[in-house]
Amino acid sequence: MTQPSAPPRILDPHAIPVVGIDDHLPPVHAERLQPEALRRRFAEPRVWTPEHPGDGQRFDARGAPTAASVLVPLVMRGDGLHVLLTQRTAHLRDHAGQISFPGGRAEDEDVDAVATALRETEEEVGLDRRHIEIIGTLPVYTTVTSYVVTPVVALVDPDFTLTVDPFEVAEAFEVPLGFLMTPAHHRRHSVELGGVQRQFLSMPWQGLDAARPPYFIWGATAAMLRNLYRFLAHE
Questions:
Q1: For residue 69, with 0-12 CB atoms within 10 Å meaning exposed, 13-18 middle and 19 or more buried, which class applies?
Q2: Cβ atoms 10, 16 nearer than 8 A
Q3: In the chain, where the domains are located
Q4: Cα–Cα dist 99/172, whole Å
């Protein structure tokens, strides 16, 4: 079967028009963002459908989809949970310069998706698994670059020191979970590229340094965070 040709990549997502902001949706209540509440929520055997199962049609021509996992690390800080994210280096083949969860493709030695997420997190940012408590997974997310990604959600003891891999990671930083679970901060973008309509979410985060540009969280990372929002907001 002939693979579909790839449309132009979105090289500057900042320039794609914002067509909507989801401030009509309520934020996840703070009580639901506490560690024990999250443990209970992931322990519940509820059936639900993610809002964003993937980027849409795959345009990658590299063959069969590749299994991958990311860790969604929820760091237990004194002011609440924070999400640990990374900014990828600019020279990487896939998703260069983008903000991502730590993670990557599955290897033969990985027994499951959790093993992949833990190994990749150790390799990318040096977060030792002894600090990590896995509490559950979200449905897989399929990217246009043919990765079938399992998000593995974990609580992280804050008593850690990171050692980032400078080849893959330009920076590691944290964003308050409450900010990301507030849809008023979720922006919708839409553009037609190569005859294909592309849509994505963004969640810009200014961070603590007002002198630097905001961290532009978008694409697959923003979509998986939006799926987490739907999971936690669902009654």
A1: buried
A2: yes
A3: 19-58+65-233
A4: 9
Decide: 82 and 43 in contact? Cβ < 8 Å: no
User: How many C-beta atoms lie closer than 10 Å to residue 68's C-beta?
Assistant: 22
End-to-end C-alpha distance for the chain, whole angstroms:
43
Q: How many residues does the chain have?
A: 235
Q: Which residues of 46-67 are buried (b: 16+ CB within 10 A; e: fewer)?
A: eeeebebebbeebbbeeeebbb
Per-residue tens of pLDDT for the chain, all 235 residues? 445 555 566 778 888 999 999 999 999 999 999 999 999 999 997 788 999 999 865 555 556 889 999 999 999 999 999 999 999 886 455 554 689 999 999 999 999 999 999 999 999 999 999 999 999 999 999 988 889 999 999 999 999 999 999 988 999 999 999 999 999 999 999 988 777 788 899 999 998 888 888 999 999 999 999 999 999 998 6
**β-strand partners of 215:** 205
Would you call 191 helix, strand, or coil by DSSP? strand
Architecture of domain 19-58+65-233: Alpha-Beta Complex (3.90)
Cβ(200)–Cβ(222) below 8 Å:
yes
